[in-house]
Amino acid sequence: MARRSHPSSRGRTISDVAELAGVSLSTVSRVMNGSTTVDAALAERVREAALSLNYTASPLARSLVLGKTQTVAVVVPDLANPVFQGMLRGLSSAAARQNYHVLVADSFENLEEERVLAVEARRRCDGIVLCAPRMPDEELTALLPELAPVVLINRDPSPAKASTVSADYHSGMQQLLEHLYGLGHRRIAYLPGSAAAQSNRKRLSAISEFADGHPDVMVTELQGGVGFEDGHAAADAVAASDDTAVLAFNDLVAMGLLSALSERGVRVPEDVSITGFDDIPFARYTTPPLTTASVPIEELGRQAWERLWALLNGQAPAYNLSFGPLVITRGSSGPAPAAA
Amino acid sequence: MARRSHPSSRGRTISDVAELAGVSLSTVSRVMNGSTTVDAALAERVREAALSLNYTASPLARSLVLGKTQTVAVVVPDLANPVFQGMLRGLSSAAARQNYHVLVADSFENLEEERVLAVEARRRCDGIVLCAPRMPDEELTALLPELAPVVLINRDPSPAKASTVSADYHSGMQQLLEHLYGLGHRRIAYLPGSAAAQSNRKRLSAISEFADGHPDVMVTELQGGVGFEDGHAAADAVAASDDTAVLAFNDLVAMGLLSALSERGVRVPEDVSITGFDDIPFARYTTPPLTTASVPIEELGRQAWERLWALLNGQAPAYNLSFGPLVITRGSSGPAPAAA
DNA sequence: CTGTTAGCGCGTTCAT
DNA sequence: ATGAACGCGCTAACAG
User: Does the CA dihedral A302-A300-B60-B52 come out positive or negative?
Assistant: First the structure.
């Protein structure tokens, strides 16, 4: 009798309900979608039937006919990075509030795959949030029409006129430099991130700008990276230099450096000051707590969702958004030590 | 002429391709799906047409007719927790390798919503990985048939016969206790997690078991929690007690405690030893580095995927898996100080 | 080997 | 207010 042996209620279709309630498919559809033009008694019968069959309309079929999936894609370069985790979290929470689902794709920094990954993810969704800091401008621009509606994170809106949400890395770095300068630091090391990343270029431009305006300070670029290990590995170079402060590309690098320095008995901030970037949740719990340029990571995700949502509803694109980081002064930065 | 004003190639259907290539829909379908029973010349024409139209079959339509979405859902209680992040990462990477997509849902520890969240997510996918440490056994058991195929993470397989992958928190805690005991600690504090979580109950049972076997040690339960702040807040109680070691529920709590203790000038491990749990990536970069019970977090995700994949392919459920944590001894634990 | 037909499960015109 | 018929885009029987 039963079409399936499963005890579960899955596989029930709209016509099962229609049959049980003794009405037509359309009536069931109307009731399920809250159409008011249905006789109250009939509607009740349908609801009961649906309930007893534990019926819910197939999202798949609805998606196909309605032309919308109630799902958005998020592509990030590295899910292991707290910044993207926070972004995803903010986005996912905001989307969920409006009954949207989130398809997540980690490109694992794989530049070649990133493009097809994004396109594939996008095809199963209504829109996409793309976080691809290292994708070349031209490639991105070419990709954009295929992805629309799309919101970019941490990319200049310049090349293509796309909706973007970003953090102002230039401003953040500038403030960090001023902070260190104010503490008397004149010899500063910078641990750069990936050369291809826009956010690194922004930091660099802030540095050279600052250096131009302050002939008395000297900023040296050391070997950097984006993770703990990179910061850890930079410790020797830092210790060997006569820099009194180091700007790490991000909090992860700063934490790795902090840890390695502590192992070597180098005191922070007495011997050397260290600053991070992003203000990930861990930053305030390091020893000493990390001075950093705070970026509203989750808010970035939320705003990306807001913009995507507007796009999905055919609204005019909102103004692009850029958050100016806030320097949070904690224990890892202090007055420059007197010259040796 | 064009049906849409969009310059994009989206909206192209299989019949557009068929028309352009001068063949029927089925032929296009066959070519796109790599059926070998198609004339080489025709196939080439179809491929060209598809390429020139930038055509790709709609995943939605395929899903509907094939009865599979190539997508799996992952439900976690808190995306901000590095443990679930790692799990998601391992899972997502493994799934991606087999061309599966991942729909992620964060329940934000909301017990009421968790159930509907899981069901809704599941309906858009082929299967689901459920990470719901606090959901009551009965509720979970009732939910299971509706979710199948499903893989559970960190749940006892006992109540329902479901596929599970987990870490052995009992064993981990036991090893941690032995580690501390070997170091001479006899008064130990435990900072518990959520009382409802199975992983907390496992730790507790390991503790009472150990206490039973070692009348000379005394384990006291203090106010705990699951995040930084909770560990941070526990510092006063820890400092006020005469315990020489503290077992934090997880690494996050341990880090919060470490940080607060350091602020108070309490030395770790000279004055008090601290252990975490999970071995999140940050654990080795704290000051001092954290002794912890290491759980192969990403591997947990990978294995969950393997099991789900087997289920999806109708294979017999694999043996359930439990990883025995490994104690990683780092700087935060040391010999018990001589009694005051 | 190819084309025609019938669904997948649903929403939505059309008539009634 | 309700039902019949069509179509969303595609795959898989079935014919030829």
Answer: positive
